[in-house]
Amino acid sequence: MDLLTAAITLPFVFAFGACIGSFLNVVIYRLPEGLSLIHPPSRCPHCEHPLGKTENVPVFGWLWLRGRCRWCRAPISVRYPLIEAVTGLLFCLVFWQYQFTLLTVGYWVLISWLVALAMIDFDTMTLPGVLTKSGLLLGLIFQGVMGWQTGQTPEYLMLGIVSAVLGIWLFDLIGLSGTFILGQQALGGGDSKLAAMLGAWLGWKYLLVTSFLACLVGSLFGMGGMVLGLLDRRHPFPFGPFLALGAMLSLFWGERMISTYIQMFFPLQ
Questions:
Q1: What burial class does residue 192 get, using C-beta atoms within 10 Å of its C-beta: 0-12 exposed, 13-18 middle, 19+ buried?
Q2: pLDDT tier for residue 243 given thresholds of 50, 70 and 90
Q3: How far apart are alpha carbons 64 and 185 in whole angstroms?
Q4: Cis peptide before 241 (omega within 30 of 0)
Q5: CA–CA gap between residue 14 and residue 140 (Å, rounded)
Q6: What is the CA 21 to chain-centroid distance, rounded?
Q7: DSSP secondary structure, 62-96, as one string
Q8: What is the mean pLDDT of residues 193-200?
Q9: What is the predicted pLDDT for the residue at 43?
Q10: Which sign, positive or negative, has the C-alpha torsion 18, 87, 70, 51?
Q11: Inter-CA distances, 4 with 100, 185, 250, 267, Å
């Protein structure tokens, strides 16, 4: 992508991603509570006064209000604009790498699901089935569309199905092993469903890369928490955010990581 095209398109992509991030804030807050995602419209979490049009502008609305409700002056968490900004930046990264292709649209959808799932798991230690199941279905549809584009629909669909099953089996095995070693449940059932969803979207190669990165970063986080005295050996923490992080890293650098691994351990003779 040349610099002129990037300068013209990326601000619009960021704005679009930030708007999606604004809706994801609603999903993250309301879905675990069983609330409607549509009604009532966005409002202050303290005084429940509806937000005006200027107040509801992603990122800039929070900055304009200086992080406080216009009506009751209660502080509004900085997490809201951060999720909007991060979503916008991730959308820009996807567009920068995959440009005007179906992959871009598909990966925007995947990232939206991952942001929502990661934050809900962080807040509630749960991964809602309505998101993992719908994400799995969308992943298979995505594989079907990509297969249709290349004239290999059955092959792509089979790849998605086999990779989804692999994700369930792999994380069930990891969970059973961790439970045996720790003497308590190591992974929740939602992690296997999220892994199945990622398999449907990414295929088995990127699923393995995602799983490795998630386990590596999660282990480092756990050990760091124990060293600092913030966690003990039996203290649970959500694994969904690490799976989401691993999946995003795989989207952008998975092929490079696989190529580096092959060159290091299986060099040409």
A1: buried
A2: very high
A3: 46
A4: no
A5: 27
A6: 12
A7: HHHTTTB-TTT--B--THHHHHHHHHHHHHHHHHH
A8: 96
A9: 78
A10: positive
A11: 15, 53, 28, 40
Distance between CA atoms of residues 166 and 57, nearest Å: 41
In sequence order, the β-bridge partners of residue 50 are 43
- The first and second tokens of residue 269, run together, are 């003779």
Written as six digits, the tokens of 239 are 């694994």
Task: Check residue 54 and report its DSSP letter.
Answer: T
Other beta carbons less than 10 A from residue 247's beta carbon: 29
C-alpha–C-alpha distance, residues 191 and 239, integer Å: 7
Q: Which amino acid is at 60?
A: F
Tokens read off for 202:
């990414």
Separation between Cα atoms, residue 42 and residue 19, nearest integer Å: 13
User: What proportion of the chain, given as a percentage, has pLDDT over 90?
Assistant: 60
Cα(187)–Cα(203) distance, rounded to whole angstroms? 22
Six-digit token string for 114: 């991952």
User: CB neighbours (10 Å) of residue 181?
Assistant: 9
Asked if residues 195 and 139 have their Cβ atoms less than 8 Å apart, the reply is no
- State the CB neighbour count (10 A cutoff) for residue 77: 12
pLDDT for residue 98 is more than 60: yes
CA distance 181 to 48: 47
